[in-house]
Amino acid sequence: xxxxxxxxLQWRARRIVVGVCAAMLVFAVTLLLQSVHDSFLEExxxxxxxxxxDAWVVTRGLAGPFTTNSPMxxxxxxxxxxxxxxxxxxxxxxxxxxVDGAQSSGPVDVNVIAYRPDGVVQPRxxxxxxxxAEGEVAVDESLGVPLGxxxxxxxxxxxxxxxxxxxxxxxxxxxxxxxxSQGQAIAYHGDDLASALVMRGKPAVLPPDLVVMTPRDVRxxxxxxxxxxxxxxxxxxxxxxxxxxxIVAFVCYLSALDRVRDVAVLKAIGAxxxxxxxxxxxxxxxxxxxxAAGAVLLAQALLPAFPLTIGLxxxxxxxxxxxxxxxxxxxxVAGITRVLRVDPALALAGP
Length: 351
Hints:
By secondary structure, the chain is of the alpha+beta class. The protein folds into two domains: about 1-45 and about 230-350, no CATH class; about 60-205, no CATH class. It is about 50% helix and about 20% strand. The protein is built from nine helices and 13 strands. The longest helix has about 40 residues, at about 15-50. The relative contact order is 0.19.
Protein backbone atom coordinates (compact mmCIF):
# COMPACT_ATOMS: atom_id res chain seq x y z
CA UNK A 1 0.00 0.00 0.00
CA UNK A 2 2.90 2.34 0.67
CA UNK A 3 4.17 1.76 -2.87
CA UNK A 4 0.74 2.61 -4.28
CA UNK A 5 0.66 5.78 -2.19
CA UNK A 6 4.10 6.88 -3.37
CA UNK A 7 3.18 6.22 -6.99
CA UNK A 8 -0.01 8.21 -6.52
CA LEU A 9 2.00 11.14 -5.13
CA GLN A 10 4.36 10.88 -8.08
CA TRP A 11 1.52 10.71 -10.62
CA ARG A 12 -0.21 13.75 -9.17
CA ALA A 13 2.98 15.64 -8.34
CA ARG A 14 1.83 18.90 -9.93
CA ARG A 15 -1.32 19.02 -7.82
CA ILE A 16 0.62 18.09 -4.70
CA VAL A 17 3.20 20.83 -5.34
CA VAL A 18 0.46 23.43 -5.83
CA GLY A 19 -1.21 22.31 -2.59
CA VAL A 20 2.08 22.41 -0.69
CA CYS A 21 2.90 25.91 -1.98
CA ALA A 22 -0.55 27.25 -1.11
CA ALA A 23 -0.48 25.76 2.38
CA MET A 24 3.12 26.92 2.83
CA LEU A 25 2.18 30.55 2.18
CA VAL A 26 -0.65 30.35 4.69
CA PHE A 27 1.56 28.66 7.28
CA ALA A 28 4.29 31.28 6.75
CA VAL A 29 1.88 34.17 7.27
CA THR A 30 0.49 32.45 10.37
CA LEU A 31 3.99 31.95 11.73
CA LEU A 32 4.86 35.61 11.16
CA LEU A 33 1.63 36.77 12.82
CA GLN A 34 2.38 34.58 15.81
CA SER A 35 5.90 36.01 15.98
CA VAL A 36 4.51 39.56 15.95
CA HIS A 37 2.04 38.59 18.69
CA ASP A 38 4.83 37.11 20.80
CA SER A 39 7.11 40.12 20.22
CA PHE A 40 4.45 42.46 21.62
CA LEU A 41 4.42 40.45 24.84
CA GLU A 42 8.16 39.82 25.06
CA GLU A 43 9.06 43.50 24.69
CA UNK A 44 6.96 44.34 27.76
CA UNK A 45 8.88 41.74 29.77
CA UNK A 46 12.19 43.23 28.63
CA UNK A 47 11.03 46.74 29.48
CA UNK A 48 10.05 45.84 33.04
CA UNK A 49 13.32 43.94 33.47
CA UNK A 50 15.21 47.06 32.37
CA UNK A 51 14.08 48.93 35.50
CA UNK A 52 15.36 46.19 37.78
CA UNK A 53 13.20 46.91 40.84
CA ASP A 54 11.29 44.58 43.14
CA ALA A 55 8.22 46.83 43.15
CA TRP A 56 6.85 50.16 41.98
CA VAL A 57 5.29 52.95 44.01
CA VAL A 58 2.60 54.98 42.24
CA THR A 59 -0.18 57.36 43.19
CA ARG A 60 -3.19 55.50 44.58
CA GLY A 61 -5.99 55.07 42.06
CA LEU A 62 -3.77 54.89 38.98
CA ALA A 63 -3.91 51.96 36.60
CA GLY A 64 -0.14 52.10 36.30
CA PRO A 65 2.81 54.33 35.45
CA PHE A 66 2.75 53.63 31.70
CA THR A 67 -0.91 54.30 30.85
CA THR A 68 -1.83 57.13 33.22
CA ASN A 69 -0.12 60.39 34.07
CA SER A 70 -0.42 61.62 37.63
CA PRO A 71 3.10 62.53 38.77
CA MET A 72 4.28 62.62 42.36
CA UNK A 73 6.98 64.63 44.11
CA UNK A 74 10.38 62.99 43.90
CA UNK A 75 10.97 63.98 47.53
CA UNK A 76 8.69 61.06 48.37
CA UNK A 77 11.57 58.76 47.50
CA UNK A 78 13.68 60.16 50.34
CA UNK A 79 10.75 59.77 52.76
CA UNK A 80 10.21 56.11 51.92
CA UNK A 81 13.82 55.03 51.42
CA UNK A 82 15.26 53.16 54.39
CA UNK A 83 18.97 52.36 53.90
CA UNK A 84 19.27 50.32 57.15
CA UNK A 85 16.55 48.02 55.81
CA UNK A 86 18.13 47.97 52.32
CA UNK A 87 15.16 49.84 50.88
CA UNK A 88 16.22 51.96 47.90
CA UNK A 89 14.12 54.18 45.65
CA UNK A 90 14.72 55.65 42.21
CA UNK A 91 12.22 58.14 40.77
CA UNK A 92 11.49 57.75 37.07
CA UNK A 93 9.54 59.79 34.54
CA UNK A 94 7.84 57.92 31.71
CA UNK A 95 6.22 59.64 28.73
CA UNK A 96 5.97 59.65 24.94
CA UNK A 97 7.42 62.19 22.53
CA UNK A 98 8.95 62.58 19.06
CA VAL A 99 12.56 63.14 18.06
CA ASP A 100 14.06 64.83 15.03
CA GLY A 101 17.38 63.86 13.52
CA ALA A 102 16.94 60.09 13.67
CA GLN A 103 15.54 59.72 10.16
CA SER A 104 15.59 61.97 7.14
CA SER A 105 11.86 61.39 6.59
CA GLY A 106 10.93 63.45 9.64
CA PRO A 107 10.02 63.07 13.32
CA VAL A 108 10.02 59.62 14.92
CA ASP A 109 7.72 58.57 17.77
CA VAL A 110 9.64 57.41 20.82
CA ASN A 111 9.08 56.34 24.39
CA VAL A 112 11.05 58.30 26.95
CA ILE A 113 12.36 56.91 30.24
CA ALA A 114 14.05 59.40 32.54
CA TYR A 115 15.86 58.04 35.60
CA ARG A 116 18.09 59.25 38.39
CA PRO A 117 21.61 57.79 37.91
CA ASP A 118 23.32 55.61 40.53
CA GLY A 119 20.08 54.16 41.84
CA VAL A 120 17.92 51.10 41.35
CA VAL A 121 17.61 51.69 37.60
CA GLN A 122 20.93 50.95 35.92
CA PRO A 123 20.91 50.91 32.10
CA ARG A 124 23.31 48.48 30.47
CA UNK A 125 24.15 49.78 26.99
CA UNK A 126 25.47 47.44 24.34
CA UNK A 127 27.70 50.28 23.14
CA UNK A 128 28.79 53.54 24.77
CA UNK A 129 27.65 54.39 28.29
CA UNK A 130 24.47 55.38 30.17
CA UNK A 131 23.46 59.07 30.20
CA UNK A 132 24.67 60.83 33.35
CA ALA A 133 24.16 64.50 32.57
CA GLU A 134 21.63 66.73 30.87
CA GLY A 135 21.97 66.74 27.11
CA GLU A 136 22.89 63.04 27.01
CA VAL A 137 20.68 60.12 25.97
CA ALA A 138 20.93 56.41 25.31
CA VAL A 139 18.66 55.06 22.58
CA ASP A 140 17.42 51.69 21.45
CA GLU A 141 19.23 50.18 18.48
CA SER A 142 15.99 50.12 16.47
CA LEU A 143 16.14 53.91 16.22
CA GLY A 144 19.10 53.39 13.91
CA VAL A 145 21.40 56.19 15.07
CA PRO A 146 25.11 55.79 15.91
CA LEU A 147 26.95 57.15 18.93
CA GLY A 148 27.56 60.87 18.76
CA UNK A 149 24.39 61.64 16.81
CA UNK A 150 22.56 64.80 17.85
CA UNK A 151 18.80 64.43 18.27
CA UNK A 152 16.22 67.10 18.95
CA UNK A 153 13.40 66.37 21.39
CA UNK A 154 10.97 69.12 22.39
CA UNK A 155 13.44 71.66 21.03
CA UNK A 156 16.26 70.31 23.19
CA UNK A 157 19.43 69.06 21.50
CA UNK A 158 20.55 65.71 22.88
CA UNK A 159 23.69 63.71 22.13
CA UNK A 160 23.54 59.92 21.86
CA UNK A 161 26.14 58.49 24.26
CA UNK A 162 24.91 54.89 24.37
CA UNK A 163 22.76 52.33 22.56
CA UNK A 164 20.51 49.71 24.13
CA UNK A 165 19.20 46.43 22.73
CA UNK A 166 15.55 45.37 22.86
CA UNK A 167 14.22 48.37 24.79
CA UNK A 168 10.99 48.91 22.88
CA UNK A 169 7.33 48.87 23.85
CA UNK A 170 3.94 50.05 22.54
CA UNK A 171 4.29 47.85 19.48
CA UNK A 172 7.99 48.19 18.75
CA UNK A 173 8.34 51.92 19.46
CA UNK A 174 12.00 52.69 20.28
CA UNK A 175 12.91 54.13 23.68
CA UNK A 176 15.09 57.09 24.57
CA UNK A 177 16.70 57.01 28.04
CA UNK A 178 17.80 60.25 29.71
CA UNK A 179 18.49 61.62 33.18
CA UNK A 180 15.57 62.51 35.41
CA SER A 181 16.45 66.20 35.48
CA GLN A 182 16.43 66.29 31.68
CA GLY A 183 13.08 64.50 31.57
CA GLN A 184 11.59 66.86 34.15
CA ALA A 185 12.68 69.85 32.09
CA ILE A 186 10.90 68.42 29.04
CA ALA A 187 7.77 66.85 30.53
CA TYR A 188 7.13 68.82 33.74
CA HIS A 189 8.58 72.27 32.92
CA GLY A 190 11.39 71.67 35.40
CA ASP A 191 9.18 70.74 38.36
CA ASP A 192 10.61 68.08 40.67
CA LEU A 193 8.10 65.38 39.66
CA ALA A 194 8.20 61.71 38.67
CA SER A 195 5.77 59.19 37.21
CA ALA A 196 6.65 56.49 39.73
CA LEU A 197 9.27 55.24 42.15
CA VAL A 198 11.13 52.04 41.30
CA MET A 199 11.85 50.30 44.58
CA ARG A 200 14.21 47.62 45.84
CA GLY A 201 13.21 46.16 49.19
CA LYS A 202 10.06 46.54 51.26
CA PRO A 203 9.35 49.82 53.06
CA ALA A 204 8.07 49.76 56.63
CA VAL A 205 5.68 52.69 56.08
CA LEU A 206 3.97 53.98 52.93
CA PRO A 207 1.98 57.25 52.69
CA PRO A 208 -1.78 56.65 52.34
CA ASP A 209 -1.94 58.34 48.93
CA LEU A 210 0.54 55.87 47.43
CA VAL A 211 0.29 52.20 46.55
CA VAL A 212 2.79 49.47 45.70
CA MET A 213 2.54 47.62 42.39
CA THR A 214 4.42 44.43 41.59
CA PRO A 215 6.45 44.18 38.36
CA ARG A 216 3.75 41.85 37.05
CA ASP A 217 1.06 44.47 37.73
CA VAL A 218 3.12 47.09 35.90
CA ARG A 219 3.71 44.71 33.00
CA UNK A 220 -0.03 44.08 32.69
CA UNK A 221 -0.60 47.84 32.70
CA UNK A 222 1.91 48.17 29.87
CA UNK A 223 0.24 45.38 27.90
CA UNK A 224 -3.33 46.61 28.28
CA UNK A 225 -3.32 49.09 25.33
CA UNK A 226 -2.18 46.22 23.08
CA UNK A 227 -4.90 43.76 24.13
CA UNK A 228 -7.11 44.47 21.12
CA UNK A 229 -4.18 44.07 18.74
CA UNK A 230 -2.94 40.84 20.34
CA UNK A 231 -6.45 39.33 20.40
CA UNK A 232 -6.91 40.26 16.74
CA UNK A 233 -3.62 38.61 15.81
CA UNK A 234 -4.65 35.49 17.72
CA UNK A 235 -8.00 35.34 15.90
CA UNK A 236 -6.33 35.80 12.51
CA UNK A 237 -3.93 32.98 13.32
CA UNK A 238 -6.83 30.62 14.05
CA UNK A 239 -8.57 31.57 10.80
CA UNK A 240 -5.37 30.98 8.84
CA UNK A 241 -4.94 27.56 10.45
CA UNK A 242 -8.43 26.72 9.17
CA UNK A 243 -7.57 27.96 5.68
CA UNK A 244 -4.42 25.83 5.59
CA UNK A 245 -6.37 22.80 6.79
CA UNK A 246 -8.98 23.37 4.08
CA ILE A 247 -6.27 23.44 1.40
CA VAL A 248 -4.82 20.12 2.57
CA ALA A 249 -8.31 18.59 2.84
CA PHE A 250 -9.11 19.72 -0.70
CA VAL A 251 -5.97 18.07 -2.06
CA CYS A 252 -6.74 14.82 -0.23
CA TYR A 253 -10.37 14.79 -1.40
CA LEU A 254 -9.45 15.37 -5.05
CA SER A 255 -6.92 12.57 -4.83
CA ALA A 256 -9.58 10.25 -3.42
CA LEU A 257 -11.99 11.16 -6.23
CA ASP A 258 -9.35 10.36 -8.85
CA ARG A 259 -8.72 6.95 -7.30
CA VAL A 260 -12.29 5.71 -6.95
CA ARG A 261 -11.78 2.90 -9.48
CA ASP A 262 -8.46 1.90 -7.89
CA VAL A 263 -10.04 1.74 -4.45
CA ALA A 264 -12.94 -0.32 -5.79
CA VAL A 265 -10.53 -2.86 -7.25
CA LEU A 266 -8.60 -3.08 -3.99
CA LYS A 267 -11.83 -3.58 -2.06
CA ALA A 268 -12.95 -6.27 -4.49
CA ILE A 269 -9.77 -8.28 -3.94
CA GLY A 270 -10.16 -8.02 -0.16
CA ALA A 271 -7.86 -5.19 0.88
CA UNK A 272 -8.40 -4.21 4.52
CA UNK A 273 -10.19 -0.86 5.05
CA UNK A 274 -7.36 0.48 7.20
CA UNK A 275 -4.93 -0.10 4.36
CA UNK A 276 -7.16 1.84 1.99
CA UNK A 277 -7.37 4.71 4.47
CA UNK A 278 -3.60 4.88 4.77
CA UNK A 279 -3.16 6.56 1.38
CA UNK A 280 -5.17 9.76 2.08
CA UNK A 281 -3.69 9.89 5.58
CA UNK A 282 -0.11 9.70 4.28
CA UNK A 283 -0.88 12.24 1.56
CA UNK A 284 -2.42 14.65 4.07
CA UNK A 285 0.58 14.37 6.37
CA UNK A 286 3.02 14.71 3.47
CA UNK A 287 1.38 17.90 2.20
CA UNK A 288 1.02 19.54 5.62
CA UNK A 289 4.50 18.62 6.91
CA UNK A 290 6.19 19.70 3.67
CA UNK A 291 4.24 22.96 3.76
CA ALA A 292 5.25 23.57 7.38
CA ALA A 293 8.94 22.97 6.62
CA GLY A 294 8.80 25.36 3.68
CA ALA A 295 6.89 27.91 5.75
CA VAL A 296 9.68 28.09 8.33
CA LEU A 297 12.23 28.86 5.62
CA LEU A 298 9.94 31.39 3.93
CA ALA A 299 9.12 33.15 7.20
CA GLN A 300 12.80 33.34 8.08
CA ALA A 301 13.51 34.95 4.70
CA LEU A 302 10.72 37.51 5.20
CA LEU A 303 11.77 38.61 8.70
CA PRO A 304 14.13 41.40 7.50
CA ALA A 305 11.27 43.00 5.57
CA PHE A 306 9.31 43.69 8.78
CA PRO A 307 9.67 47.19 10.29
CA LEU A 308 9.06 45.60 13.70
CA THR A 309 11.94 43.70 15.25
CA ILE A 310 10.71 40.13 15.59
CA GLY A 311 12.39 36.79 15.94
CA LEU A 312 11.46 33.30 14.87
CA UNK A 313 12.00 31.21 17.98
CA UNK A 314 12.02 27.47 18.42
CA UNK A 315 8.66 27.40 20.22
CA UNK A 316 6.57 28.84 17.34
CA UNK A 317 8.27 26.42 14.93
CA UNK A 318 7.48 23.45 17.18
CA UNK A 319 3.89 24.63 17.53
CA UNK A 320 3.67 24.89 13.74
CA UNK A 321 5.00 21.34 13.36
CA UNK A 322 2.47 19.93 15.84
CA UNK A 323 -0.43 21.88 14.31
CA UNK A 324 0.63 20.87 10.80
CA UNK A 325 0.60 17.18 11.77
CA UNK A 326 -2.79 17.61 13.43
CA UNK A 327 -4.20 19.44 10.40
CA UNK A 328 -2.81 16.74 8.10
CA UNK A 329 -4.58 14.02 10.07
CA UNK A 330 -7.86 15.95 10.29
CA UNK A 331 -7.75 17.04 6.65
CA UNK A 332 -7.22 13.45 5.50
CA VAL A 333 -10.66 12.60 6.91
CA ALA A 334 -12.19 14.10 3.74
CA GLY A 335 -10.31 11.58 1.60
CA ILE A 336 -10.83 8.71 4.05
CA THR A 337 -14.59 9.30 4.09
CA ARG A 338 -14.72 9.17 0.31
CA VAL A 339 -12.62 5.99 0.22
CA LEU A 340 -14.87 4.18 2.70
CA ARG A 341 -17.95 5.01 0.61
CA VAL A 342 -16.59 3.43 -2.58
CA ASP A 343 -18.65 0.43 -3.78
CA PRO A 344 -16.48 -2.58 -4.77
CA ALA A 345 -18.90 -3.21 -7.65
CA LEU A 346 -17.39 -0.21 -9.43
CA ALA A 347 -14.39 -2.43 -10.19
CA LEU A 348 -16.59 -4.33 -12.67
CA ALA A 349 -18.28 -1.26 -14.13
CA GLY A 350 -17.57 -0.05 -17.63
CA PRO A 351 -15.50 3.03 -18.47
